[in-house]
From TrEMBL:
Name assigned to this protein: Nicotinamide N-methyltransferase-like
Gene Ontology cellular-component terms listed: cytosol
Organism for this UniProt entry: Myripristis murdjan (pinecone soldierfish)
Alphabetical UniProt keywords: Methyltransferase, S-adenosyl-L-methionine, Transferase
Gene transcribed to yield this protein: LOC115371654
Any single GO BP term: methylation
Classification via Pfam families: NNMT_PNMT_TEMT
Family matches, as SUPFAM superfamilies: S-adenosyl-L-methionine-dependent methyltransferases
Family: Belongs to the class I-like SAM-binding methyltransferase superfamily. NNMT/PNMT/TEMT family.
Cross-referenced PROSITE patterns: SAM_MT_NNMT_PNMT_TEMT
Binding site for S-adenosyl-L-methionine: 14, 19, 76, 81, 133-134
UniProt GO MF annotations: N-methyltransferase activity; S-adenosylmethionine-dependent methyltransferase activity
PANTHER family reported for this sequence: NICOTINAMIDE N-METHYLTRANSFERASE (PTHR10867:SF32), NNMT/PNMT/TEMT FAMILY MEMBER (PTHR10867)
InterPro entries tied to this protein: NNMT_TEMT_trans, SAM-dependent_MTases_sf
Amino acid sequence: MEDLYETKFDPETYLNEFYLMTGKNRRFASFMLCQLSQTFSSGKYKGKRLIEIGTGPTIHTLISASAHFEEIVVSDYAEVNRREVEKWLRDEEGCFNWNRHIQFACDVEGRSRTPAVVKETLRQKIKHVLKCDVNLENPFQPLTVEPADCIISSLCLEAACKDREAYRRSLEAVVGLLQPGGVLVMIGDLSETFYTVGDQRFPVVSLSQEFIEDTLCELGMSVQHFNRQKLTNTEDRSDIEANFYLVAHKE
Ligand SMILES: C[S@@+](CC[C@H](N)C(=O)[O-])C[C@H]1O[C@@H](n2cnc3c(N)ncnc32)[C@H](O)[C@@H]1O
C-alpha cells in the first residue's frame, strides 16, 4: 500500500483535482476549514507542539491551529509529498497556491489575522518535515518524537491501511504520539473503498462512525465532537458517502 504512494501518487495532480477551491471541492474545503476554525478559535487547545500525520502535499489543515501552538511538525510517507510541502515553506517558484484556503480561514476567523500573517506564522512554526509510516508502532522510526499537545490527521489512516485491524493499530500508534490531556483532530471519509488521482486508483479502508468512535474509546480517547458532511456521488472517481470531522481528548 505504502509503495503505491511512494511510486504512483502525483502531488500536483492531487492538488489540482482536490484543492482548487472550486465546485464540490469548495464544499469539502469550506466544511473542513469552518470546523477547524471553530475548534481552534474556542481557545481550548493550545500548547507547545502540534504534529500533523500524513500531511500529503498540503498545509491547509494547519491554518487555524497555527495561531495556538509554538512549533509544528508535519509528516508523510511519500517523499514527493514532503518535497511539495518544503517547496511551499520556501515559497519556491511553482509551489501550490494556498491563498484561497488561507483567505477563507481568515474570513471565518473574523479577520483577526491577515493572510500574510498566517503564511508567515506557518513558515516560521513548521520546524520539521519528517518521514512517517503509520503502519509502524513508532511512525517516526528511527526517530523518537516528543509527544504532542495536538495531533491533526486528514484522510491519511484510511488510505494508509489495508483493513480495519491495521487501521486500529495505526490509530493506536498515532494516539501514542499524544500527551495525556492532548487533543486529536481527525478528518476522514466514511464508507469509501477507493478514490482516484488522475488515472490512478487508491484503495481505502471503509469506515463507519460507530467503528471509529468505538476504536477511539478502546484506545482511551473520549470523542468530544463528531460531525459529518454527506456527499452525493455521481462520479466513478470515488465511492465516498460522507466526510467526517472529529475532535477527541486523550484521557
Ligand atoms: C488522501 S492523501 C491525504 C493528504 C492530506 N492529508 C489531505 O488531507 O489532503 C493520503 C496521504 O497518506 C499518506 N500515506 C500513505 N501511506 C502512509 C503511511 N503508511 N504512513 C503515513 N502516511 C501515509 C500518503 O502519502 C498521502 O499523502
